[in-house]
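Bumping with the actual sequence this time:
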Amino acid sequence: MNGLEALPFLREKGHVVSLVGGGGKTTLLYGMARLCAAEGQRVLVSTTTHIQRPSANYAPDEAVRDTLWQAGTYAVAGSPAENGKLTQPPGLSGWMAGADTVLLEADGAKHRPCKAPAAHEPVLLPESDIVLAVAGLSALGRPLAEVCFRLDAACALLGVPPEASLTPERLAKLLASGAGGRKNVGTRAFYVILNQADDAPRRAAGERTLTILKETYNVSGFLTHFEEGERA
């Protein structure tokens, strides 16, 4: 059990889900894609910014997309970019037509477990109705300078120096803020995903963070973790 079974919207068709943040966002993206496909859904994975090109399930055209769907698996759409990455394909809305669920990576974190958004982030499509702000629990208890992408923006948002430790209170604020994980969400449904809940101490810290999110910001969230073979 990796925690995805607790996400109620994954068993509902018709959602366009955008993922922002860090801490295993791409692994989470593909974990959700596998779960939805196993439920019999036609799942499209793509990006509004950049994503690493996967070793499997890449659909260079809509015919391959449809073949993957017929085979009962998800399809990944994107235009080839530098360094083995994919970027948003032209006419993404057309690619999305016919999908039961669309999962989009909507910003980047340079492999850091948490982040603050830049001025141009996130890139949320009008069609997106759910936003998930993701962070890795490996960041807790460590200096912001070690764990946070776009450090200056995070320090400004939190009002602390780079050497300050990332506490559950600070992580909750970073994720729930309209200048942080909740940026540009508007009226969309919004949830926090705390990934890397790999052991009892991290789960306890994650539960503490979720409690703060709910009691202070009225934001619901979930804990997830993935085994080595499940990681992107």
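The tokens above came from a reply further down the thread. The chain is about 30% helix and 20% strand.
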